[in-house]
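Predict fold of Polyketide cyclase / dehydrase and lipid transport; 178 aa.
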Amino acid sequence: MRFIKRILVTLIVLVLALVGISYLLPGQAEVSRSITIDAPPNVIFPFVNSMQETEKWSPWLSRDPNTQLSYSGPEAGVGNTLNWSSDHPQVGTGSQEITASTPDQAVRTALDFGPMGTAQASFELQPEGDQTQVTWGFVSDLGLNPMSRWMGLMMDNWVGGDYERGLTNLKALVETQG
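Predicted 3D structure, encoded as tokens:
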């Protein structure tokens, strides 16, 4: 009986320690990737300033060709919104709305993954001679949920590869059209 009591006390102390440590972890998850595209910002901008255009290079839609997509708001710029729904766990269900748009420079979006949480995404276009460095970023507030904070440590591994694939797709799309 003492042995079982020791195991239970040890488990309780371990759980409390993990919860306590979680509050020392970052309160935000951030992911960012960049690529240089052989085109000026004004050629790239339309592909990041419209949810309909992002469909052409999205790294997630190839995972589930049956993903249901719907759009609302204007065709591009602030208010342009994408809603998606998929049974595939790596695609899921959610929405993304453009919340800020500076022509040929930057686009900001609000992401809503339903019960999975919310995030902000951004595209920054920085001219470099005849080329443009495109940076795709993601920030999510993890709140006070201990499990979210531990999962936040893995966000770069989970999303980073997708961002790299998406930027590579964008580069190929823009450079073949030029």
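The CA atoms of residues 24 and 149 lie 9 Å apart.
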